[in-house]
Amino acid sequence: MSSIRLELDDAGIMHFIFDKSASKVNLLDHSFIDDYVTTVNKLKQMTFTGVILRSAKTSFFAGGDITELSHSAEQGIEESFQLLSSLKDAMRWLETCGKPVVACINGAALGSGWELALACHYRIALVKNVLLGLPEVTLGLIPGVGGVVRMTRLLGLQAAMPYLLKGKQFDSEEGFKLGLINQTATSNVQMMAQATNWILSQQHPVSQDFDIKGYQLPGGNVSDPNVVSMIVQAPATLKKKTQGNLPAPEAILSVMIESTYVDVETALRLETRYFVSIIRGQVAKNMINTFWHQHNEIKAGASRPLALPVKKFSKVGVLGAGMMGAGIAYALASHGITVILKDISLEKAVFAKSYTASILANCKLDDEEKCAILQRITPSKESADLIGCDMVIEAVFEDRKVKYQAITEILTTVGAELIMASNTSTLPISSLATASTKPENFIGLHFFSPVDKMPLVEIIKGDKTSSATLAAAYDLVIQIGKVPIVVNDSRGFFTSRVFFTYVSEGMRLLSEGIPAEVIENAAIQAGLPVGPLAITDEVSLSLIDNVRNQARLDFKAEGKVLLDNPADAVLDKLLALKRRGKLAGAGFYDYNGQGHKQLWTGLVDVFPTQENWDIDTIKDRLLFVQSLEALRAYEEGVVTSTRDANIGSILGLGFPAWTGGVLQFVDHYGADDFKQRAEQLCEQFGPQFTPVAILSEW
């Protein structure tokens, strides 16, 4: 059955209707391409006044079937090139046939869906619930169905950059302001009427603006001095941002610039060549695996006990009105959940509510919706106010005694039947759960700071956490628009455990005489967003010291000894100098109080530098130390899927996106080569690089 059907209306307008069978959405795959080409060939033999492209689904077009497209490209370059070319040729015929062609966009039009709309002369979209754009670059790909060529010609080089190089998505309102959406409508009926009226009003053959003789590229043609200057500078600017680790943005920029020198047909062929090359590359494979396959598995509930019904939360308590508690309260309230924000100080709880107000001040929401979100948060200092909550999330100071006392107080008042979650980042959940007479109702929910920006939540199962509690926690995370990963209980869990190897290795490198600026730049060049010394300052050296001291006490209680490493001496020296991190105004960096920072010049006196270093080796050390710790966590059963490890490392820790995550990096490198390199690093720099036994089975 064809995924496209044709219907001719009384006005002689041909309705080109996307309706992929046995699917909730329209997707571009091999069969759709065949159907599109076949349908256009039929149109060539028919008489019609104009064409309306529309969807029979609740959305317009979801984009490409990445799995099939990547598999197809892997099978054969020539076949993939011809397949995409046949689609683009058919789209180009429709675009140049002289008849008016309108896209009626009733929902999301992303990726190839937006590209299909761009090949129309006129675009009408519903005012609400429409998301548009070309997010391919976030999967390590480039738009392959004319998106780069047409967006560049419609917007101009500079204006198109954020939508192509960053994959920025936008709504109907923004699309209208850009001139990419010609009209908006409040209903499908109105949209059809608008499309019909526009088609019938056209008296002459219709074409795209860029097909008209004398067309000028918006913002200036390539011969314009300002455009020439931008073209010269753009590659260097992009290289600085990607550090050369992400081929897709560089390919997109190449297509953008090169396509302006040639005709549309040649430009489309250029785009196809780049697309096929990029999709076959290892970086694209890494990113598709993690950001497409594994991310979709998480959204589908892969780590959730599936037999249990989905729980809908309406009221949640947050215990502790510090920065984390305030952030969690905002995340809940902004997704329709009533929040009781409880602290021992009512004034502090009220102040924490103002944090939500400050976030909302910069949000693109109407005043009524902002007011509704604020009204969902009730500050309180009374434990009894938490009665009736579906869950309480504890977010008090990261100290076992403080947390234990706070949890005990709440459960005594509310009752142990309540689902209690702790936002601890390192303390074992099973030990905290002893505060409850029903530890099966206790779970860890590790949010990341700042909560309003960080998408990840690490769900930690205690030894006795029930499946029902796990399922409920997973449901809450999904309900508030976050990405959940599930791990088993352990000191540091998964993300904190991997994180501390990164900051520790940074300090170890400093102790070895590697200049601080070299360490930080090596991290950036490897694709990490922040250097290990800078992120240590952000977290605070005092907090890292507290975690270290708690770990020592825990090890002692277990009859073990926490081995020192050179990073400990670095930490101790900075703390002795009262350089505790960013909030203290001094750490590895100096801070001027206005957001500016620079590496502390005194570091070279405390840690004399040497010149015998290699930047690639430093990059390897910073990446390998994290992947090896992730492998240990996987081997020990702390994290039980490569999916959760990869997503957790990128969304929670900033592990480079080009790698696909800490465990995908092993696949990227090749298990045997990874093991060999780890052995070399272990011999040179220490036991933190000891290869993990599981590598032999990888």
Polypeptide structure, described:
The mean pLDDT is 94. The strands form five sheets. Strands 14-13-12-15-16-17-18-19 form an eight-stranded mixed beta sheet, with helices on both faces. The chain has a six-stranded mixed beta sheet with strand order 1-2-4-6-8-11, with helices on both faces. The protein has a three-stranded mixed beta sheet with strand order 7-9-10. Helix 1 runs parallel beside helix 3 (77-96) and helix 19 runs antiparallel to helix 25. It has 698 residues and is an alpha/beta fold. It is 49% helix and 12% strand.
Largest sheet: 8 strands, mixed
Q: Please state how the strands of the largest beta sheet are arranged side by side.
A: 14-13-12-15-16-17-18-19
Which outline best applies?
Answer: globular
User: What is the first-to-last residue Cα distance?
Assistant: 42 Å
Mean pLDDT: 94
Low-confidence stretches: none
Structural class comes to alpha/beta
Number of helices: 28
The share of residues in helices is 40-55%
Give the percentage of residues in beta strands: 5-15%
Structural Rg:
28 Å
Count of extended strands: 21
Outline the fold blueprint.
Elements: E1 4-8, E2 13-18, E3 27-28, H1 30-43, E4 50-55, E5 63-64, H2 66-75, H3 77-96, E6 101-105, E7 109-110, H4 112-118, E8 122-126, E9 132-133, H5 147-155, H6 157-165, E10 169-170, H7 172-178, E11 183-185, H8 188-201, H9 225-242, H10 247-259, H11 264-279, H12 282-299, E12 315-319, H13 323-333, E13 338-342, H14 346-360, H15 367-375, E14 377-380, E15 391-394, H16 400-414, E16 419-422, H17 429-432, E17 442-447, E18 456-461, H18 467-479, E19 483-488, H19 495-511, H20 516-526, H21 532-539, H22 541-557, H23 566-576, E20 589-591, E21 597-599, H24 603-606, H25 615-635, H26 642-653, H27 664-669, H28 671-685
Parallel strand pairs: 2-4, 3-5, 4-6, 6-8, 7-9, 8-11, 12-13, 12-15, 13-14, 15-16, 16-17, 18-19
Antiparallel strand pairs: 1-2, 9-10, 17-18, 20-21
